[in-house]
Design a protein that fits this description.
By secondary structure, the protein is mainly alpha-helical. It has helices spanning 2-63, 104-219; strands at 73-82, 85-94. Residues 9-25, 143-160 have a biased composition (Basic and acidic residues).
């Protein structure tokens, strides 16, 4: 009975451990999903800022295609990768020519470049976070394997517990049967003792009768 109770306690402990591990795994998956959604939003913002800058560059070049001082341009490529997904965004940066205060076009370019840098920074932050979650996912596989192993051990422990319960029931039946046999034995011993006492009494009475008869015969 003590072993049965200990096994049940171990089963309950392992089940609680497995439930806690499953909750941790669910939370990790939810966090990974949230990070992926945030990454997608950051990539969308990065793409939008890049599109605005490219669109402005095209418009700026069209407006100044007849100018003798065409602004120089350079191209930067930003690559964002997370969980197999890659977003390669090309930004066209216009270098201002001449001196003096910024024109409205130059201010717009600076604003767009700032938005692009912020979006790129956010995308990089979420890329790093996604990588961290991917690393955690590898350990979550071990966690799932451990959870399955615990479930298998729980099933085996339950089977052993059921077997012990069955054996305990059989033992209880045997003990009841033994008690009944002991009671029957005591009853038989009591009856045997009574029969022996009766036999002794009969023998005594027979001996008394025989003695009386012998005395009568002698007197006669």
């Amino acid at each position: 009975l003590q072993e049965n109770s200990a096994l049940r306690g171990e089963v309950d402990s392992r089940r609680r451990h497995g439930d806690a591990a499953q909750r941790d795994l669910d939370e990790l998956r939810a966090e990974a999903q949230a990070a992926r959604e945030a990454r997608d939003a950051a990539e969308a913002a990065l793409s939008d800022a890049n599109s605005k800058l490219v669109e402005f560059q095209a418009s700026y070049n069209n407006n100044n295609n007849n100018s003798h001082h065409s602004p120089a341009s350079s191209t930067n490529a930003t690559t964002v990768t997370c969980e197999g997904g890659t977003a390669e965004l090309t930004t066209v940066v216009t270098a201002s020519s001449g001196g003096g205060s910024e024109t409205e076009d130059q201010q717009l370019v600076r604003k767009l470049r700032q938005e692009l840098a912020e979006a790129s920074s956010r995308a990089e932050e979420f890329r790093v976070r996604c990588q961290q979650l991917e690393d955690s996912s590898s350990s979550s596989v071990d966690l799932e394997s451990h959870t399955r192993a615990l479930a298998e051990r729980d099933a085996e422990t339950e089977r052993q517990s059921a077997e012990i319960t069955r054996l305990n029931a059989e033992l209880s039946d045997l003990m009841e049967r033994a008690a009944q046999l002991e009671a029957d034995r005591l009853k038989l011993e009591s009856e045997l003792h009574h029969q022996r006492s009766s036999a002794v009494t009969i023998d005594s009475q027979t001996e008394f009768v025989d003695t009386a008869e012998a005395a009568t015969i002698t007197a006669t």
